[in-house]
Amino acid sequence: MQNMSPIEEFNAKANEDTDREHEMQLELLQKLCLALDSGAMATTVHQILSDLIDYSEAHFMSEELLMRMKSYDDYEEHQGNHSHILEVLRDMAARNIAGKGSLLKQKAHDVTGFITQHIATRDKRLADHVRLGL
What we know:
single chain; Four Helix Bundle (Hemerythrin (Met), subunit A)
């Protein structure tokens, strides 16, 4: 980060941190899909979902704070995606607890696709916004 202003350094660091958070979120989703695909016990699925929900809540809070700090113009829709993702994950956790884990396999793959698309589009746009110091 040579010859960068303090704000440029902050912006670069924010994007690096967010990228690492996305990698962790995708790893947890992959772990969930593998557990469901292999017929893991409900307690194992519950733990993975709990970790994923907790991690996603923290990640989304951090990302939303960054959007507010940067007066990001797509905040509402972006935050709406976050709310939708958390709603789906919480619904999956409730279904798992209710003994309806067999219904979760496709949902896990669907939410993985949704989050992957979210990262590739909405999060990329946010990263560009932050990187360019807009």
